[in-house]
Write a structure and sequence with these properties.
This protein is mostly beta strands. Among the domains are: about 45 residues, no CATH class; about 160 residues, no CATH class; about 70 residues. It contains seven helices and 34 strands. A four-stranded antiparallel β-sheet has the order 5-34-33-32. Strands 6-7-8-9 form a four-stranded antiparallel β-sheet. A four-stranded antiparallel β-sheet has the order 10-11-12-13. It is globular and about 65 Å long.
Length: about 475
Amino acid sequence: MNIPGYYYDEVKKRYFKITNGSTNELYHNNTIQQLHREEKIMNKPKEPVRSSSKLIYQDQSITNLKLGLSVPNESLLEFEQFCSLSRTCCIDYRHETKFWGNLYIDNDQYIIITDQINRIKLIAVHSIIETGNEISDEVMIADVINAPGPRVNRLSEIINSLGLLPFEILTMSSSDDMLFMNVISESDLDNPQIYQNFILMGQIKKSRHGISEFVKIDRNMDFFKFTMNLSNGEIKKDLQHLFGMNVIEIQQDLYHYKPQVLKPIKRFFITFSKLTKNYLLIGTNVGNIYMLEHEDYKFNAVTKFKLSNKIEKINKIEKIEDYLIISSYKTLIIFNFVSNNKWIFNNHDLIKNLRVTRIFHYFQITLISYKKIRLLNFDISTNKYEIIKDINYTNHNIINLFSIATDKKVVILNQSNSRILIANLSNFESKSFELQISKQKINGIIRIDKDYMLISLKNSDNTSEFQIYQT
């Protein structure tokens, strides 16, 4: 029975008052309206397109939208926007780059990149859009990872003192102006079992001298103090190794890394990290997951989950309410960390990435493999998986992860060395097109601002070119 002003939650089996307050609330009126739209789309009959095996919905005709004969669908509108991308300019850059994500510093948006020697740099989004043919050093914030902090030596000097090879960045995640990253360094080939993990936990703020100058506020001391005070010896030992605390020495409010002889140890390192406003989620190469809770980045609790001895490298974790949605190779796991129950789905293809949306009493999960996009539902009330749709791309290999996955169910993927694929997950319409490049390869795609997309291209001499596309 529908009661005006109330929403019936199928899982909790009770009514909840629909609110008009914070949009973060689960039963906000905008959220409920979106849920109703999603369910309406999912249950709407479909009709085949003439001379095509793909399916569309009748009310999603652009003509009908313009005539006002149907309700606008946000995913279709955004899909049409991306399908009309046009290149605005090309920007030369001296180094090969890799995109890691975004930072928001005093409400300004910055892109995190690394060059071929693993230096972290930031690019101001507004400067990219306004620039000419080259990114100047004033736009770049160089060597964040090796910037001397108030309590720590340069990471490169630490690695040299331990006799290790140059480090490799394994994961990097950000939330607002906070940055978490982990790196690993190995010994030479004579001692391949000796290696060392390090982390960087920092807050990046503008200095008073101008937009091109930044200071790194080191937060590792808070992190290390939290870890040192853990009462659970097993978790404490794990985190000390994963965070590089096994080679540090703390004296009062100062710490430093001390040279020592490292001992061979089974490879144990972080393979996934995600920093949010309330949690730091960490997955490892042996299937362990650590959920660290914090308030204003002051960590106060940590929980360790070992899902199964058969689960190894964790490559993605999403948290929705009391659930963790996890991928590992060809395995998808939905884990309720309150009841400690898990439900496993074995996929036929390697899971490159996933996207999760909560719709009423089920999770809608999109799995990305090399040549397939799979739409999967998990019913929370029955704890069962159901395959809704498989979209195969047999002619082109999807070689990259999700490059862009919007809240409006549009994804953009790197489909080949020069081609990108745009797919609308509401009706599975897709478009693939070639970029305007020559003798280059797509190195990464990231969305900047609402109307712009930045694509990094790798040149034959290992330098980069940035192309900006506008919707």
